[in-house]
Amino acid sequence: MFKVYISESAYKSITSYATTGLSYLGKLLNKQPLQLLKEADTERYKEHPENVLKNPSALYILDITSAEALAIQRTYGVMCVSGDSPNISPLIDVNDIHIAKEQEKLGRGWDTVLDSVEQLPSNALLLTDRYLFAFKRPNAGDGIANIKDILGELLPKQFLGGNYHVTIVFDNMAKDENYSFDEIARLLEEVKQQLNRDYPITMEVIGITPDCSIYNKLHNRMIISNYYLVEASHKLAAFNKDKGTARQMLIPMALFTESSLNGNSTPPLDAIDHTLSTLRKFSKSLTYLPESAHSTYLYAVNGKRMEKCLSIRNRLIK
Fold first, then answer.
1. Which helix (H) or strand (E) segment is 204 a member of?
2. pTM: predicted TM-score of the whole model, two decimal places
3. Residue 198 CB neighbours (<10 A)
């Protein structure tokens, strides 16, 4: 859940300017949940910066130096800025839209599409597309190859916050007939290893069926992280290297737009919250489901098929 944690001293400094209400930071502070931090609270974050992961999708505006804030941001994948120079422009979308066409090149493929969001801090990813593995043929959209390209761009180079979390949700009944669920889980684990990051990654795979309670709520094809989303109008298996596999719009979005901060439109944050809320409710219900209900999905972690899921591990839905 997005929330602003801000040192009291920084808040007083920011709100002391008469023009604050006209700034995008001022508008964000007026519209989003806010928690003021006393000096002792800020000191605790300085001494134990890993605590920012207790609220991994928050914006932290702390009474620390810009260098200290950047170190927290790069190390733990959270948005952290100094109260002396609180630049929130990375959270405001740049209206980047890409139109892929079947069998035609689009820049460098996913490498081009993700340029506007890949530099944002990140500590977890969620990918949902019911038809992600519907084809095994590259020209039609190889889901495994596309996941490798997406993760190659979006997984941070550095992360010291324990396990980075990746969760992939798809329709197990709509997969290519030559795939088994176990094979998909194994291949995704191989992809994770091939990307050769120097931090541990938890790879969750959830194959839902039409009988699963969340099936009809996961129609949109999305990549979600803590500060951005990417929406595909047709499918996430969007490329065969740099060539499109279907005619569609691919839209990377930061949390806010200028229009949404002005109160004239809905922020992309709402779309993120809707999907995460769906999965959060599903995750909380798993402990109480009758045994028969666990047959409506398949679940694997790090390439290993599990008998059932008792809780989705991804920190985005905690």
1. strand 201-208
2. 0.95
3. 8
